[in-house]
Every structure is written in structure tokens, then in C-alpha cells.
Design a protein that fits this description.
Blueprint (H helix, E strand, L loop, with lengths): L3 E10 L2 E11 L4 E5 L6 H9 L6 E6 L2 E2 L10 E4 L11 H11 L4 H14 L15 H13 L5 E5 L7 H18 L2 E6 L2 H7 L2 E6 L2 E6 L1 H6 L4 H6 L4 E11 L2 E6 L3 E6 L8 E6 L5 E4 L8 E12 L3 E8 L4 E7 L14 E6 L5 E3 L2
Parallel strand pairs: 3-8, 3-9, 6-7, 7-8
Antiparallel strand pairs: 1-2, 1-4, 4-5, 9-10, 11-12, 11-14, 12-13, 14-20, 15-19, 16-17, 16-19, 17-18
Helix pairs in contact: 2-3, 2-4, 3-4
Length: 360
């Protein structure tokens, strides 16, 4: 039995359905992420788990117990908000002690719990500091310590890194991974940042318009998206759409307008009608025009632009038929390493199994 089960949960606000019949099973000790664009329903779902909002239909169960009649403070769950919500007039110790005071924990017992929580987030010795004396990352860790001090069964995190700069956000991602391993508590994490979700999570639920499009491990989501939305939302993707021309064994051919026939490995479906192929830019091989390639899909084109990103360069290639394809090449030498210039003629190619057939 899953630790946390969400069964057909629905939440409406007037005519707007924020969460539409969502069912999820989250295991003990898992770092589980709700990922999606703004307005997809992920924060509403988190609020229903926390008890700040109630479902109009469906159930939320913890260890098999329906939480419907339990207010937020009576649930063995704690929430870390994007704003951290620290009390500015209280010290670090005072902030972390607050939930224990509400629970009427004896002073001697509370002191040990506070020190343990601060040690968990690597803030031993910061007891007497005030929030304004801390960095953004330290304030975030205080908020997590306050949530952990009562040893909740599940820790809910609502975009806790969104306000941090890029470097600090990356550092805190590593902190969160290590912390979750050390404390062994189930984390349910909300974010709109695909890279963050891929880096942190054991599993990810991708949400769109109140529904869950796919639940999978990060590498499965990236490599084998089930729908066009997931393919386009997770990372960068060339989405090639067109009528299905036919199937030969496990290879389907799709006629992509302004490009031509594209072959893709597909074990089921896609016999006729419209098909879509997701091809990641790093799967596209670029070579000077006239270079032979044994790949199933081969197209000529012209470099329309490129974006140097340090370790890689992303190229936009306009095929002779008019369709644009993105290709990513690693930079193997130092400096501004450009393999091709705008206007260069190139050959694009990729094998059929480098692409992935997607639905919807």
C-alpha cells in the first residue's frame, strides 16, 4: 500500500476545474514532484494534501486513512512555502521551536529536537540569528528545519527555490537531495522548472489543465514522453507531426509537412491517421553537406542560427523543404567553439530509434 494515495481528486472554483480527477500513489521515502506550467493545478493539489483546501470529489489517504476530516494542524504533514514564511521578530531557534510550542512539547525535549532539526539542515550554531541576518539559502533551510522538527510523515514543498538566484538554486537542489536521503521523509515537491524536477525527483507527475499527463522516473519522462505536451514541456524537443504513411515491422513512417518522410520506432499504434515524433536535439547528427550517413532519417539544410551555451552549441537548421530542426553539439575545445556558421550547408540525420512516437 502506498504511503500517500490521491484517489480521483477534483477541485472546482466556479466553472473552472483546477484539479480534474487526479489519482496518484506516492511511496514512503520517495522524492515525488508535481510538475507543470502555471495554472495546471499542481499547487491546488498540494494544498488539498496539506488540508488548506478540500476536494469537491475524491479522497486523499495517508497510510490508508482518509484525511478529509482532519484540519491542517492535525495532519502529520508540514509545508514549506516559496516565501519561507519565517517570523522576522523571532530568532532561528524561535522559528524552529514554534511548532513544538503549539504542540506543548516539554522544554527539555524541545531543545533536543531543535538541535537535531538544525543539524539536519546544517545550521548548527545559528540559533540566535534573526532571518534578516541570513542568506536566502539559509532562510530556506530554517523553513525546512521548522517543518522537520515535528518529524512529519510527509514534507510538502511549494516551489521553495523559485526566489533564489541560479547558482544558489543549484546548490540548494543538492542540499535538498542529500537532506531527503538523510532524514528519510517522503517529499512532495511542486515546481514549474523542468530541469529542477529532473534533477531532484525519484518520480515526477507532469500536470496539464488539471490532469496528470504522465507519471514516471526522470529518465523515462525525458526519453519516452507519452504525449505531445510532455515531449514539449520536458526539455527541448523537435516535435514532428504529420499523417502516417504506413508501418513496416516496428518502424512507422510519418509524412512531415515541409520536411518529408520521417521514420520512427513504434511497437504499437500509429497504423494510420496523424502521428507525432519527438526527437531530442542531442539525437540529431550534423555533418557537412555531402557527408555520407547510414541513418534512417537524412535531410539537407542550412544553418539558420546558433546559440553558444558554453559546453554545447544549439543550432537551428532550416531544411531545404522549409521545416526548422534544432540540433545540439558538444563543444570539445575551449573558447567559442563553433563547428558551423550561419549559412553553412549541412546534412541532418538520426536513426529511427532516436525518435519516439507520442500520443495526443
Amino acid at each position: 500500500m502506498a504511503l500517500l494515495e490521491i484517489a480521483h481528486a477534483t477541485r472546482r472554483f466556479g466553472d473552472f476545474v483546477a484539479v480534474d480527477g487526479v489519482s496518484l500513489a506516492i511511496e514512503a521515502g520517495e522524492f515525488f514532484t508535481l510538475l507543470g506550467p502555471s495554472g495546471c493545478g499542481k499547487t491546488t493539489l498540494l494544498r488539498m494534501i496539506a488540508g488548506f483546501d478540500l476536494p469537491d470529489a475524491g479522497r486523499i489517504l495517508l497510510n490508508g486513512e482518509d484525511l478529509a476530516d482532519r484540519p491542517p494542524e492535525a495532519r502529520p504533514l508540514r509545508t514549506v512555502f516559496q516565501s519561507y514564511a519565517l517570523f522576522p521578530h523571532m530568532t532561528v531557534q524561535g522559528n524552529v521551536a514554534f511548532p513544538l510550542k503549539m504542540a506543548k512539547t516539554p522544554a527539555a525535549e524541545a531543545a533536543a529536537k531543535i538541535e537535531e532539526a538544525l543539524a539536519d539542515v546544517r545550521l548548527t550554531g545559528f540559533n540566535s540569528r534573526f532571518p534578516h541576518e541570513l542568506s536566502g539559502g539559509q532562510r530556506q533551510r530554517v523553513a525546512i528545519a521548522r517543518a522537520l522538527v515535528t518529524h512529519p510523515t510527509v514534507l510538502l514543498l511549494d516551489e521553495p527555490l523559485a526566489a533564489l538566484d541560479a547558482k544558489l538554486r543549484e546548490e540548494m537542489q543538492i542540499e535538498l537531495i542529500n537532506m531527503q536521503k538523510e532524514v528519510g521523509i517522503t517529499f512532495v515537491y511542486v515546481t514549474h522548472d523542468q530541469t529542477e524536477a529532473l534533477a531532484l525527483s525519484h518520480r515526477i507527475a507532469v500536470m496539464n489543465r488539471g490532469k496528470v499527463e504522465q507519471v514516471d522516473a526522470p529518465d523515462r519522462l525525458y526519453g519516452y514522453p507519452k504525449t505531445r505536451f510532455v515531449a514539449g514541456f520536458i526539455g527541448t524537443c523537435n516535435l514532428l507531426v504529420g499523417p502516417v504513411l504506413g508501418r513496416s515491422g516496428e518502424t512507422v513512417t510519418i509524412a512531415v509537412p515541409d520536411l518529408g518522410p520521417v521514420q520512427v520506432h513504434s511497437v504499437a499504434g500509429a497504423e494510420h491517421g496523424e502521428g507525432a515524433v519527438a526527437v531530442r536535439p542531442e539525437k540529431v547528427r550534423l555533418a557537412a553537406q555531402g557527408t555520407a550517413s547510414a541513418h534512417d532519417n537524412r535531410f539537407s539544410g542550412t544553418i539558420a542560427g546558433f546559440l553558444y551555451q558554453g559546453d554545447v552549441t544549439v543550432y537551428r537548421v532550416k531544411a531545404d523543404q522549409g521545416h526548422e530542426i534544432e540540433a545540439l553539439l558538444a563543444n570539445s575545445s575551449s573558447g567559442l567553439a563553433k563547428f558551423f556558421e550561419v549559412g553553412d550547408r549541412v546534412e541532418m540525420s538520426w536513426p529511427a530509434d532516436a525518435g519516439h512516437h507520442v500520443e495526443g
